[in-house]
Predict the structure of MFS transporter.
Amino acid sequence: MQSRHQHGETKITAGLIAGVILPFSCGYLISYLFRTVNSVIAPDLIAELHLDESGLGLITSAYLYAFTLFQLPLGLLLDRYGPRRTHAILLAIAALGSLMFAIAPDPLTLTVSRAVIGMGLSGGLMAAFKANALWLPPARVPLANSVVVAFGGLGVFAATGPSDWMANHFGWRSLFYLLAAVTLLVAILVYWLAPHGNGQPEHAANAPKSWRAQLRDIGPILATRTFWGIAPMVAFVTGGFIAIQSLWTARWLTDVRLLDRGAVAGDLMAMAITFSAGSLITGFVADWAHRRDIGLKAVMIGCFVILACAELGIILDAPLPAWLLVGVLGLAGSGSNLAYVTLGDQFGPALAGRAQTSLNLLLFLAAALLQSGIGWALDLLNAIGFGAGAEMRYATVLGAMLAIQVLSVLWFARTTRERR
């Protein structure tokens, strides 16, 4: 099967939806579910294992550290073997990690197990973006990517109310047994439904490059002005959003707003719903802009302005309903993901996997450092007696993160130029 780029087709058919968008979207849903589920079971982990904030942050961020470390190998595998085989095998590894997490007896084993899960789900978004870049008409890739991200919002939804119900009635360990089975099922679906091959012509002149040649291709990618104009913005804006969405929003609702477990799960569900809706809205806006040669830069900056307003409301503990604050946060949280489309346009399908996973490496390294760093900073401020209550400590730490995000977006606005 040849890629859509070789045919020049412009429509997304039912076959492409069933074979490309659907299975890889399910893979990303699973990835986001695992990324977020610790925010719901955090009270169980704290009670059973006597964790402090930094310990909870370390266990949760182990997913992100392993996810990050595997990004460059992932890019090589995606470009060499294609998203179908690569993602299916990695999902099977994630299922094994979930099983390990379910039987883990101590914090160290939980940390290692979550790292295995992170490695297995490292291709959740990049495999989908690579598949879209290979098989879909170029003008429709921004919309398709946003549909995938919207499925991630369904993963957040599943990680809140449904997962909280499961953990309350059957225990958090039973939840992870179930997640292991579901992840293995998704691995089978990806392998069975997705197109075979890597999307490249199969004659001898286009045979796969050696591993060394593939690694050499990363150098020119990292040397471009486009990459380093985009990278800090994606790393700190999307990375910061991931860090607070997957753990610290729930802790802020608990520690500052003093909500009980059920209310926290309800507010996280609101954020999941708005995240999915915002991803679709962003996708339609980006699709409209991309096809009219307007560019995606203004869309990304507009999303950040909305995100920053929500973060500022949380930092100041604005007298607004918690569901509204976190809902607006979710609404704008996916905007910076449009940068992956810019990289795909810049480097083309043959290098898209390595370009996007190089960016993803920086993104999830920042997310992991921010997620664990927020926990360490909160514990440090508490230890030195900073502030009269938790709200001051959260305001200080999250305010510092917002300042870094603003600087990264200003850098992005100043240094990037879009191709028309």
Remarks:
- The radius of gyration is 20 Å.
- The chain has one domain: 13-194+213-415.
- The chain is about 80% helix and 0% strand.
- Residues 13-194+213-415 form a domain with the Growth Hormone; Chain: A; fold (CATH 1.20.1250.20).
